[in-house]
Amino acid sequence: MLLTFLILDSTPTPPPSFSQLDDTLRPLQPLPNSQESMLIYYEHVELAEKYVKLQQEKHATAARV
User: Is residue 50 a contact partner of residue 18, using CB atoms and an 8 Å limit?
Assistant: First the structure.
C-alpha cells in the first residue's frame, strides 16, 4: 500500500486531478503535526484518485456507446 512509505512530516500538495472533483469530495488539508491526520489525508487522496479514474472510464465508455 502507498501509505507504508510516505514521508509524513510535510504538508502535501493536492494532485492536479482534484480540480475535477466537486468541492465536497476534495480531501481537506491534514494537520501537519498529526500522523493520524496525515494518514487519513493520504487514504482520502488515494480514494479520490480512484474516483476520478472511474469517472473518466465511465464517460469514455458512455461516449463509445
Answer: no
pLDDT tops 80 at residue 50: yes
First to last CA, the chain: 35
6 in Cβ contact with 46 (< 8 Å): no
**Three-state DSSP class for residue 23:** helix
CA–CA dist 3, 1 (Å, integer) = 6
> Is 33 within 8 Å of 9 (Cβ atoms)?
no
Listed by start position, the domains of the chain span 21-65
**pLDDT tens digits for range 13-29:** 777 777 778 888 888 88
Give the distance from CA 24 to its chain's centroid: 12
